[in-house]
Amino acid sequence: MRTLLAALLALIVFGGRAHADQFPSHPITIVVPFAAGGPSDAMARILGDRMKTTLGQAILIENVTGAGGSIGVGRVVHATPDGYTVSFGHLGTHVANGAVYKLPYDLVTDLEPVVLLPSNPMIIVSTNAVPAKSLPELIAWLKNRPQPATAGTAGAGSGSHIAGLYFENTAGIKLQYVPYRGTAPALNDLVAGQIEVMVDQTANSITQVRAGAIRAYAVTGDKRVESAPEIPTTDEAGLPAFHMTLWSGLWVPKGTPQDIVTKLNAAAIDAMNDSEVRKKLENLGLQMPPTDQLTPDALGAWQRSEIAKWWPMIKAADLKLE
Ligand code: ASP
Hints:
Elements: H1 2-21, E1 28-32, H2 39-55, E2 59-63, H3 70-77, E3 85-90, H4 92-100, E4 111-127, H5 135-143, E5 149-153, H6 159-171, E6 175-179, H7 183-191, E7 197-201, H8 202-210, E8 214-219, H9 234-237, E9 245-253, H10 258-273, H11 275-283, H12 296-317
Parallel strand pairs: 1-2, 1-3, 5-6
Antiparallel strand pairs: 3-9, 4-7, 4-8, 4-9
Aspartic acid binds next to α2, α6 and α7.
């Protein structure tokens, strides 16, 4: 009986190890919970493309959209915990959504953190038809309207929605949110003049700002974005209370073997250390995470501290789910 038990145990232990040793033996899917062509999609594709060099397998991006990204995250929570299904997310999906929705999963206990990814200041933008030319003029214009201006978001609880709420609170204005499945389609509508303003990720809007298709008023980081140095910070533009940087990260389902998490973590770090990748990301206004914050534990601790910071604010705002 004892030998049989020992044999069974060895099978389980070594069987499991062999499985992790071979990882990855087929393509990995990163689930991006927002529309293709948006800022999350762009970052996941740039990093995934380089991660395949380290991992030796293709990285596929699947856009599973809706409900502020919470549907895509749920897809990963319920996937097999074998490292082949990875959740890309950010402050919206892996923090704010827990306070905005009654999620059928727990953002902390049902997922395993992998690595913190670059962060992005937000940018306040409008259609060119808006008469304001500076942030104070925009705020005055927003205040003096009979109806709130329409503001595109990637859905309730998304980064652009949280940023919009932050803008409302600090500027004393009111916005009418228009939810999309990501800020890529929202930006298309902004360029076309279907909506009026957006507090977007810089990575998304920057190309249209540079092309003169929309107008930028300020970025919400503590310094100007290198690739668009003419845009002032909110500090410089007269709204110093509005500071926000949208960080991103990768997670896998709870129960994923530790050595698989380690391999995914190392591949993402390799990608972020690659000078070509950095150039592409920095050109989008993205900032690399601090090098001492790149362990899975550091992301877990950061996510928990962000939950402690944001949930009371979001719950106090009593969001209406549009
Ligand atoms: N990151 C989202 C996207 O890629 C947008 C958001 O959270 O506002 O569309």
